[in-house]
Design brief:
By secondary structure, the protein is an alpha+beta fold. It contains twelve helices and 15 strands.
Amino acid sequence: MLFIRNDSTDPYFNMAAEEFLVKQLQEDAFMLWRNDNTIVIGRNQNTMAEINYDYVRKNSISVVRRMSGGGAVFHDMGNINFTFVVNSGDDFSNYQKFTEPVIGFLRSLGAEAELRGRNDLVIEDKKISGNAQYMYKNRMLHHGTLLYNAEQNHLAEALRVSEDKIKSKGIQSVRSRVTNILPYLKEPLSPEDFIARFADYMVQNFPDCRFYDLSVHEAEIRKLRDEKYATWEWNFGTSPAYAYQKRLRFPFGSVELYMDIGKESVIDDVKIFGDFFSKCPIGELEAKLCGMPHKQDVLQENLQQLPLGDYIQGMTDEDMMKLLF
């Protein structure tokens, strides 16, 4: 088994690295890695229905979609991720096999972790790890999070979405009570020391485990990062359909916006209501918005070409963007 210590904290590079391990290497591998301030979305989820978009934008939080299914998770530098890649289709849905060494390591440090349900690790009934899997031909990827010393407020706010704003037609996350691992250890360790101990544990307990330098493949991984994982099309455009609604009160009146977002996050239908005044029929604005992707930079550019004040007297481009996102 190859052991990879991936020091990158770029979420787009790290997702690309996982895909590279599954699709391009032949040997079994184990990787430890971290993302800096990122929401990782499950393969079949609706991105906008999982994130607090305003909070994510204001706090410069990255959003990236992974290959595997499951729910959305928040990563920061206090969250440590592990990835197994093996040549075995028989182990799909066998979460116990891949979480056993993780549990063994945590217990060696004094944290009495256990597998609960299908794919969660818990300490005292509080979740510390979520796990997911992905199959590619005869290669299987199993990865999981470890909430070591994560910022709980960031986690809660970044994933807080008003249910009356977005009605997803995809798979939504189930929120659980969570806790950090650090308070349960016999002795406090920095995240870096925790990772180093984890690496030593794996090498000692898996005789065939040997260190492998991933940097020899950096150019290939970076190409995959740039062309797939860092793109809006992958992270937002592949979302399942959803319905979006928002109501805001402005000095010129209240405005309610209803949108149906369909395939590739394109706006299929728009309805705008309110007690505002208008010079031109609001239906003209609704028609112009249809067919555009629900993408911030594209809509912002197009709104600059429209006489918004003719449709909603007093409205600015900035006001409309607050409604659209």
